[in-house]
Amino acid sequence: MREDIANLIKLQKVDLEILALDREKENCPESLLAVEKDLAAKKEEIMKLEKEIEELKYKKRSYEDELEQEYQRLRKSQNRLMEVKAQREYQALLKEIEEIKKANKLREEEIINIMDRLEKLNAEKEQLVEELHELETKVAEERAKYEAKREQLDEQRRVIWEERESIAKNIPTSLLKRYEFIKTRRNGLAVVGVINAICDGCHMNIPPQLYNELIRDDQVHECPICQRIIFYKKAYAELLGELPEGEGEKEDQAQASSPK
Ligand SMILES: [Zn+2]
Predict the structure, then answer these.
(1) What CA–CA distance (Å, rounded) separates 85 from 99?
(2) Centre of ligand 1 from the C-alpha of residue 259, in Å
(3) Beta pairing, strands 229-232 & 191-195
(4) Distances from the Cα of 64 to the Cαs of 57, 72, 109, 115, 145, in angstroms?
(5) Which residues pair with 221 in a beta bridge?
(6) φ and ψ at 77, to 5 degrees?
(7) From residue 51, how far is each of 13, 37, 56, 59, 188 by CA, in Å?
(8) CA-CA distance, 239 to 103, in Å (whole number)?
(9) φ and ψ at 29, to 5 degrees?
(10) Check: CATH 1.10.287.1490 for 21-167?
(11) How many whole angstroms from 200 Cα to the centroid of ligand 1?
(12) Distance 171 CA to ligand 1 centre (A)
């Protein structure tokens, strides 16, 4: 019986190590998440900039189209100027030509402004694309590190798994099944120590009668509250590699004599 409990304690220990490895493997490192976030932000920034550039290009094209039409209108008006005889009509045409020229000048200025702005935005974009490539490299590096880490964890897991198998094969099948069943229902923790009549799993009090039986250490017991397999911690202190703290000697003596 002592051997079964000792094996269960060992099994629980390696199972917790395996659980920790599995969790670590699923846990994407902060460093990778951070660069991935930066990369996404940079892409977003570039997209916004590209949209602004496209809008400006469209605006520029429409000014150019307008200008083209207005140049034609100007040429027609200038040609008509040669044919017109009446003074009033001549004056009106001159005025119209002046107005077209004035409006075209404004359009030309606007186009120049847009071109300046486009030049600046394109330079900005070039810079951002360069930064994007740097981030892509960083992400690839961090991913590779993470992958290497995962492989290393897999290797560690294989080693621990072998250890687990060698422990499990010494545990009676029905007890092992009971352990597995509790483990799946209790978040990976199926075997817990009890000291001072307190269950390490649920931190509740074990009834005195059960505690006395537990101290005798001649049978596998379960906590009546959390249903985990329990053992008297003091009896397995050596195996646990720790001396349980805060054991009330008086309480022990009052209940039963410790096997130690
Ligand atoms: Zn409990």
Answers:
(1) 21
(2) 22
(3) parallel
(4) 10, 12, 11, 12, 53
(5) 230
(6) -60, -40
(7) 57, 21, 9, 12, 52
(8) 94
(9) -65, 145
(10) yes
(11) 7
(12) 22
Q: Kindly tell me the number of DSSP H helices and DSSP E strands found in the chain.
A: 7, 4
DSSP element (H, E) containing 232: strand 229-232
Q: Evaluate whether 197 touches 224 at the Cβ level (below 8 Å).
A: no
Question: Ligand 1 centre and the CA of 142: distance in Å?
Answer: 42
- Listed by start position, the domains of the chain span 21-167, 172-255
Is 0.85 surpassed by the pTM of this model?
Answer: no
Whole-angstrom distance between the N-terminal and C-terminal Cα of the chain? 16
Name the residue among 179, 174, 175 with its Cα closest to residue 14.
179
Which tokens belong to 53?
């550039």
Q: Which residue reads 């009330």 in tokens? A: 248
In this predicted model, what pLDDT tens digit does every residue of 122-141 receive, in sequence order?
999 999 999 999 999 999 99
* Closest by Cα among 144, 182, 84, 29 to 191: 182
Write the single-letter amino acid at 184: T
Kindly give the residue spans of alpha helices, DSSP state H, lying in 27-86.
30-83
pLDDT in tens, 209-260: 999 999 999 999 999 999 999 999 999 988 887 655 544 444 444 444 444 3
Minimal CA–CA distance to 49: which of 125, 120, 100, 101? Answer: 125
The pair of three-digit structure tokens given for residue 211, joined into one six-digit string: 């505690």
Residue 227 CA to ligand 1 center (angstroms) comes to 6
